[in-house]
Design a protein that fits this description.
Blueprint (H helix, E strand, L loop, with lengths): L16 H40 L10 H14 L5 H21 L11 H16 L3 E18 L3 E17 L4 E20 L45 E7 L3
Antiparallel strand pairs: 1-2, 2-3, 3-4
Helix pairs in contact: 1-4
C-alpha cells in the first residue's frame, strides 16, 4: 500500500486462478458482442472506401501476363481437361457480366448469386447496401465489344483465368448532390473478370455455372439460400465443381 499523501500508484494484484476462469467464461460473450457490430462496421467501411475510390479514381487493373505465359497456362488447363474450350468460357463470362449488371440495375442481388463465388457475392451484397445507404445510384447501358484472356495460372489447388473485357456504352454514378464519377455519353473502358475453379474440376458436358446450369446435375441453376443447387443439393459456388466469378475489376473511371 502506498504511503499516505504519496502519488505513487498502488501495485496491481496478479490475477488468480479464479480471475482467469472468470475471464475465459466471459470471453465468448465478449466476442459475440463484437460480432454483432461487425456487419454495420464492414458496411460503413465498404461504403467509405467505395466513395473514396470513386472520388480519387484509384482503381488499377492487374497487369496482363506475357502472352507466352498465357498460352502455356491455357495449354496446362486443356491438357488435363479435354472438354475445356476457352472461347466457350469467355462467352460464359460475358453472360455472367450481363447477369451481374442486371442485379446492379434492379438492386436484386439474388440474381448475381447464380454466377459469383460465395465470398464475392457477400461482398457484392454489402457494397450495394452501402451504396443504397448513401443514395449512390449507378446508371449503365453497355455491351462487350471484345474479350481476351490476359492471365492463366494453375497450381496444385486451383486454376484461374483473368478475362479482360472491352466495354462500350454509358456508365456513371450519381448521389443526392452532383455526379460521383463517370459522365453521361458513350465511352469505352476495360474490365477484368477473374474466374476460378478447383484444380481437379473438369468441364461439365452440358455446360456449367457460367452457362446457367448446375455442374453436378445439369439442371437449370437455382441456388438455395445455403449456396447449394436447389435440385441436387451440391454446393456449387465454392469453385470446387466449376468456374465461378472470383473477382471483378474495373479500369479507372
Amino acid at each position: 500500500m502506498a504511503p499516505a499523501g504519496s502519488d505513487a500508484p498502488a501495485k496491481r494484484k496478479p490475477m488468480g486462478c479464479g480471475g482467469l476462469v472468470g475471464f475465459f467464461i466471459k470471453l465468448p460473450f465478449m466476442i459475440i458482442a463484437m460480432i454483432r457490430h461487425l456487419g454495420p462496421l464492414l458496411r460503413q467501411q465498404a461504403a467509405t472506401d467505395t466513395g473514396r475510390r470513386a472520388r480519387e479514381g484509384g482503381e488499377q487493373l492487374t497487369p496482363a501476363q506475357d502472352p507466352a505465359a498465357v498460352t502455356a497456362g491455357l495449354a496446362a488447363v486443356a491438357s488435363r481437361d479435354p472438354g475445356f474450350d476457352v472461347a466457350v468460357t469467355v462467352r460464359g463470362v460475358q453472360r455472367a457480366r450481363a447477369v451481374v449488371e442486371q442485379a446492379r440495375r434492379t438492386g436484386d442481388t439474388s440474381a448475381a448469386r447464380q454466377v459469383l463465388s460465395e465470398g464475392l457475392w457477400r461482398l457484392f451484397v454489402m457494397l450495394l447496401a452501402g451504396r443504397a445507404d448513401h443514395e449512390v445510384r449507378r446508371y449503365e447501358t453497355s455491351a462487350v465489344a471484345g474479350a481476351a484472356v490476359v492471365a492463366a495460372t494453375r497450381d496444385q489447388l486451383s486454376e484461374q483465368l483473368r478475362i479482360r473485357l472491352t466495354c462500350r456504352g454509358e456508365r456513371y454514378e450519381v448521389a443526392e448532390t452532383p455526379r460521383v464519377r463517370g459522365q453521361p455519353g458513350q465511352q469505352e473502358w476495360l474490365e477484368d473478370w477473374v474466374v476460378r475453379r478447383a484444380a481437379a474440376a473438369t468441364t461439365p458436358p452440358g455446360g456449367g455455372i457460367l452457362d446457367g446450369r448446375c455442374p453436378r446435375c445439369g439442371a437449370t441453376l437455382e441456388v438455395s439460400p445455403d449456396g447449394s443447387c436447389a435440385y441436387c443439393k451440391a454446393l456449387v459456388l465454392t469453385g470446387g465443381e466449376d468456374w465461378v466469378v472470383w473477382s471483378i475489376e474495373e479500369a479507372p473511371w
